[in-house]
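Fill-in record for DUF1648 domain-containing protein.
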Amino acid sequence: MKKNIFVVTNILLCIIIGLIFITKLPQQLGIHWSSSDSPDVYVNKFVGIFIFPIAILLTWIIHSVIFKKMIKTQLNNLILNILTGTYTVIHLFLLMENLDVLNIKVELSGVLIGIIIIIIGNLMQKAKMNPLYGVRTTWSMKNEEEWRLSNRFGAKVLVAYGFAVILVAILLPKYFFPIIMSLLLIVLIVVVYASYYFYKKSLKINN
């Protein structure tokens, strides 16, 4: 992995802030809130302060090993930095919530999921045909042109879905998972059908 000062700084920042407040944090940290605005998932505080530093490190490894060959270096680094910064912000909000500094009504995990979906969607437009990532259907894998059309359309739908996830997390946190799962089903159906449509359309043109 190449040296990335921003990523390393965020890992250290998360750990240091967690250790500074370790004595003031409750023994069990709430990491997920139910529809009644009370924590329903807890972890030991010594585990909790390292969740996001580890998530940042794993994201760094994945981007350095997997996405390195699929995406241009500058774009890959930009996306990695956005994810890293997002993880750090969520980490700070989580600590503040457990310190009773603020009262979060937003489904934070939903905001994070939405941001990641938007980033993944944008990446799909530039990804080359591969066995791991993108709109990989029987039709999109026929040739480079089908891949390009399917992934360009799929990327737009996925980005729209990502923004929808963020809005639901902010406006309707109590119904977050039922709504986003229903929307996800619609997204999958639309993207798969679009891939089939592009393939059939290309057959008509070529014939």
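KEY FINDING: The first helix runs from residue 5 to 20.
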